[in-house]
Amino acid sequence: MFPEYDVIVVGAGHAGCEAAAAAANMGSKVLLATMNMQTIAQMSCNPAMGGVAKGQIVREIDALGGYSGIVTDHTMVQFRMLNRSKGPAMWSPRAQSDRMLFARKWRQMLEAHPNIDFWQEMVSGLVVKDGIVRGVRTSMGLEIPGKAVVLTNGTFLNGIIHIGEKQFGGGRAGEKAAKGITEQLVELGFEAGRMKTGTPPRIDGRTIDYSKTEIQEGDPDGGKFSYTDTPKLEKQLPCHVTYTNQKVHDMLRTGFDRSPMFNGRIQGLGPRYCPSIEDKIDRFADRDRHQLFIEPEGWDTCEIYINGFSSSLPEDVQYKALRMIPGLENAKMFRPGYAIEYDYFPPSQLQLSLETHLVKNLFFAGQINGTTGYEEAGCQGLMAGINAHLAVVEQEPFILKRSEAYIGVLIDDLVNKGTQEPYRMFTSRAEYRILLRQDNADLRLTPLAHKLGMQDMEERMERVQAKAGAAAAIEKYFRETSIEPEQLNAYLERIGSAPLKQKGKLHPVLLRPNISIQDLRGVLPHLDRFLEPYDFEFIELADINMKYEGYIHKEQEMVDKMNRLEEVRIFDDFDYRQLGSLSKEAREKLSKIRPRTIGQASRISGVSPADISILLVHMGR
Fold first, then answer.
1. What does residue 445 show for φ and ψ, rounded to 5 degrees?
2. Hey, is 166 helix, strand or coil?
3. Where are the beta strands (DSSP E) in 284-399?
4. What tens digit of pLDDT does each residue of 488-540 get?
5. Domain boundaries, the chain
6. Domain 458-552 CATH class label
């Protein structure tokens, strides 16, 4: 009934969709298996993509040929660049999406791909022979042969939904949990754990008094994620901000005795940086209010997402507390918030390619690895899809370094440090964030995707070369063009900057605080004429490169130093137990994680600098 597929992807959430697209764009014949074709790429939680560090990841996915940025650009209702008041390493794009259009666009793009087939049914197990995955088994007992399998099960593995004292099986509201896979993996020797996440109630926007809230508009000029020619956002929907108060907190506390979080029914740890509202008022009892974001779910619906009010309290307590919030006094609830508990597999059981150590050609991506967030899931799916294809064609895996991408930081953290709580990406996790900016993801990663053989990269490479060339030309102009004091001094005095005393180059002027290329462009007609052919994006890149040149060079030197350790390979069958001079913890961790390089070994929790020195001596270094 089924042909043998190159890659079978189980689950059609953000990780699964990117995995299927990536493997297909590498040339594999792909089957995407999902329990429900109507919920492909469903935004289970908030209807938004990007944010601090997450926006950088979406840009990186796009630069590598993934679809998340393209889909977001086609379906967004608002765009904002966060952290503009800080340095460019912190700038992070974020977009509100139309939830229904987002899922529809993803499905359209996947269905348009000739290398992707679909199957709607629960996958209940794997076909494993001689330590190699050979396909999947469905709930109807069908066996579908495949050379590689990517598991992207999200919150569905033995998922349990909690609302107050009520609990029932489910992977998402209105959908059943997935059974069988966890049990089989544990039998095969995998370690499993439990995690939890949550979602807030959805309410009827027609019942909100927006006059009592603060409006939050998008950026006036809009913006986008993809480096491709996606549509410009012509109109936007506003979000709004409101706050809890002491009355709200007191009402929520009345339900604590029925909360699964406080009475021990939930065993898994929840996301530290996105806590439920009851967790917030318990942990931060000194705070008299908490910020809430009122986010529209799309252009053609009145459904509203209350970001910041995630809860597993009884529905009556949620409802009463909501109606004590300014602007929500008459709110009607579409459905209550809930917590969901699900199985995950500690990611220290993976290689950096996201292939498991125990079963060859089996890959994990997304929340099964203990992460949280669409963006974190999507980038893992992309990398797992690429590496599943490479495994099938017996090529070396594609692994991004920490210095090359936030994606590299995320996977390196997961594999080498593991996680006991839902992992979320932050800019602070990256040592080289001046190099890993959202504006240069295409320069960093598109050449790598092109070299890999990812489909449709020729036009992208031409644009990357044009962008790099434009930035270099603009930088050269600033270093070579002289300026007379009378041309700029009136402007400099107006902004409180010291006047020029003699003729000099334009470059040092740009390095002054609060002066940008766009500012100078409005003062110097010859500069404006020179810049006219260039896109704003290219000009901004040149601006950042010149202003932060010293910091960029310093980080690059750190990268070069670290890369020398990354080049020292460790044999796959290296026996760490023979080195009695290593600490016991180092022997255990190194034997379990099996690092590929000395650099990777140095980042494993519990492996000390002394242990690394011993390894280097043993390897003749």
1. -115, -30
2. strand
3. 291-296, 303-307, 333-335, 338-344, 362-364
4. 999 999 999 999 999 999 999 999 988 999 999 999 999 999 999 999 999 99
5. 202-338, 458-552, 567-618
6. mainly alpha
